[in-house]
Amino acid sequence: MGKALGSIRLGPRLYAISQEIRPSLTVADIGSDHVLLPLFLLEKQGIPEAIITELGDGPYKRAQSTIEKSPWRNCIQLRQGDGLQPLRKGEAGSVVIAGLGGDTITEILERDWQKAESFQHYVLQPMSRAAVLRECLAERGWPIERETLVGEKDKIFVIISVRPGRSPYYLSPLEKDLGPVILRSDSPWKNAYLQSWRKKYQKVVQGIRQAGAPEQELRLEEYLQKIEALEVMAGVSHS
């Protein structure tokens, strides 16, 4: 179940995101999902201010209507624009980018690294292609501080807490896909998460074998190694 405060109820995914926010910081929410997260943060965690950005006219107008009815309307700024573009450098402490593909989140950061690096902390929640995002963070030198798994509606979501940095680091193929912190964690969702990735890898292996293309041998070996590593972690035995 989600957590509620007054009339605001967050599902497990948004609640887990809220727990990564530092209460003393102004929060910018890039695409706000009906303004639920900023309102919750203002009421429960006492953030000083929220900045909401929406790109499309429809989401912008819905957010505007919700804010106008809220007792926190004087603490929320709503701006229309793409990604980080509506923000001024350094005006937010924490930036939330959730519910987008990992490749899209990567593109948002890459458009203006100077601006992106002016904010203290990010909470990123990729819906897909998290490996693209993690690879970008590693190459840029942004350390991953925390990775959280949370289940909602038969899906497992990954929440990544990062801060800007300047020391690039290496991630293995498995760490890019599943997350370096998650692989070392003891999350209650970890086993199901590992099994879901094992099944994905097995489907890829099956496809490569059916294609029978000799040039895919290296790729096949990479995926077999990933499967073996996951089986070791999960304690899977072959009979």
Describe this structure in words.
With 239 residues, this protein is an alpha/beta fold. It is 43% helix and 21% strand. It has helices spanning 12-18, 36-45, 57-68, 102-110, 113-116, 130-140, 173-178, 180-183, 190-211, 217-234, and strands at residues 3-5, 8-10, 27-30, 50-54, 76-80, 94-100, 121-126, 144-152, 155-162. Helix 3 (57-68) links the parallel strand 4 and strand 5 (76-80). Helix 1 packs across helix 2 (36-45). It is elongated, with a radius of gyration of 20 Å.
Write out key terms for the chains shown.
alpha/beta, 43% helix, 9 strands, 239 residues, elongated, two-stranded antiparallel sheet
Layout of helices and strands, plus pairs?
Elements: E1 3-5, E2 8-10, H1 12-18, E3 27-30, H2 36-45, E4 50-54, H3 57-68, E5 76-80, E6 94-100, H4 102-110, H5 113-116, E7 121-126, H6 130-140, E8 144-152, E9 155-162, H7 173-178, H8 180-183, H9 190-211, H10 217-234
Parallel strand pairs: 3-4, 3-6, 4-5, 6-7
Antiparallel strand pairs: 1-2, 7-9, 8-9
Helix pairs in contact: 1-2, 4-6, 9-10
* Strand line-up in the sheet with most strands: 5-4-3-6-7-9-8
Helical coverage, percent range: 40-55%
Largest sheet: 7 strands, mixed
* Rg over alpha carbons: 20 Å
Instruction: Name the overall outline.
Output: elongated
Low-confidence blocks of residues: none
Structural class: alpha/beta
Number of strands: 9
The first-to-last residue Cα distance is 39 Å
* Arithmetic mean of pLDDT: 93
If helices are DSSP runs of H or I spanning 4 or more residues, what is the number of helices? 10
- Give helix and strand order, one letter per element, not per position: EEHEHEHEEHHEHEEHHHH
Amount of beta strand: 15-25%
